[in-house]
Write a structure and sequence with these properties.
Diaminopimelate Epimerase, Chain A, domain 1; 3 domains; 8 helices; flat
């Protein structure tokens, strides 16, 4: 029978106690694997934390979006603003209009669209409700966010020739919001719907008042790219054609007219025209900017912050959209 040789004991230098080399290697390996396992656990914890953070960043905000209100009738009021009589009168008016004309108009009142804009919310409502006839796309929706003090007229493809962006904005500014400012929401909505129906019928809007109106600061945003583009591009052409002074004056006048058509505010149009004149006049001092566009772009776009109140409608269950399509046409306003 053969026996394995005994493990050699190697004395340590300096008279230290000796330890079997095999045992020393085992302890070192054990310490190494413990340390490595700790680092691996730390990395796993960090990975889990990162995944959780990403989940919260993407999933939690999405869960805050509220579904589009159910289309329960031609008038859906989730705020209790309109009385049952107001809803019945509006519903009857819209039903008769649809019977006579074929086009559909609906009204939606919600407390808020926060954190999204009313443009985003309205287009999502339009896509869900499908107001208007299929392939005719002759639908429109008046959306009011009462607590936000914002409203919008969302227009289907088939009505964009009648309810243009400018016309929709004038209806909001001249018909609806003056009554809203006085607290008459039922009167403002009724008058706005009346004017929308008359425009669809082919009746033109009256000539706008030319009194100075400085409008709303929210109106200035869309004018900035128009003013910059007009001053630098159109202004450069007109200065070459008419000279520096006359070309700049013509540029400012053109910008003022465009602003008046877009906003309907004489005061803001005047300020835009002056800014266009000044920018065009001094553009020659900055050769790098001459002939280049400073224009920008803007878009409108959908769900809203949380509310939970019942909707009101007097023709519940008997009304539905006809399959109409929307492309973001219309206008927004505030009061």
């Amino acid at each position: 029978m053969r026996f394995a040789p005994p493990t050699a004991v190697i004395p340590r230098a300096g008279g230290e106690s000796s330890t079997p080399r095999l045992l020393r290697i085992t302890l070192a390996s054990l310490e190494y694997w413990v340390a490595r396992s700790s680092r691996a656990m730390t990395r796993s914890v960090w990975r889990a934390a990162i995944v959780a953070a990403l989940f919260l960043a993407f999933v939690v905000p999405a869960s805050a979006d509220v579904a589009v209100p159910q289309l329960t009738g031609r008038v859906v009021d989730q705020t209790g603003t309109l009385s049952s009589g107001d809803i019945a009168a509006l519903t009857q008016k819209l039903r008769e209009f649809e019977t006579r004309k074929g086009s559909q108009i609906a009204v939606l009142i919600v407390p808020t669209t926060d954190p999204e804009t009313i443009e985003q919310f309205s287009i999502r409502v339009a896509e869900a409700w499908k107001i208007g006839r299929k392939k005719v796309d002759d639908g429109a929706i008046l959306v009011v966010a009462k607590n936000d003090r914002h409203l919008r007229i969302e227009v289907g493809y088939g009505l964009e020739g009648a309810l243009t962006d400018v016309t929709s904005r004038r209806i909001i500014d001249e018909v609806i919001t003056p009554k809203f400012r006085g607290g008459d929401f039922a009167g403002g909505i009724s008058a706005g719907v009346d004017r929308m129906m008359r425009v669809v019928d082919g009746e033109p809007l009256p000539v706008p008042s030319r009194s100075v109106n400085f409008g709303n600061l929210d109106d200035i945003g869309p004018l900035l790219p128009v003013t910059l583009f007009g001053s630098l591009i159109i202004g450069g052409f007109l200065r070459t054609l008419l000279g520096r002074l006359l070309g700049s004056a013509a540029t400012g006048s053109l910008i003022a007219v465009l602003a008046l058509l877009l906003i309907g505010s004489t005061g803001i149009a005047l300020l835009a025209g002056i800014a266009g004149f000044l920018l065009s006049f001094i553009a020659d001092l900055f050769p790098a900017s001459t002939g280049r566009s400073g224009g920008g772009s803007w878009s409108s776009g959908s769900s809203s912050g949380g509310w939970s109140s019942g909707s009101s409608s007097s023709d519940s269950g008997s009304f539905s959209g006809g399959g109409g399509s929307f492309g973001g046409g219309g206008a927004s306003g505030s009061w």
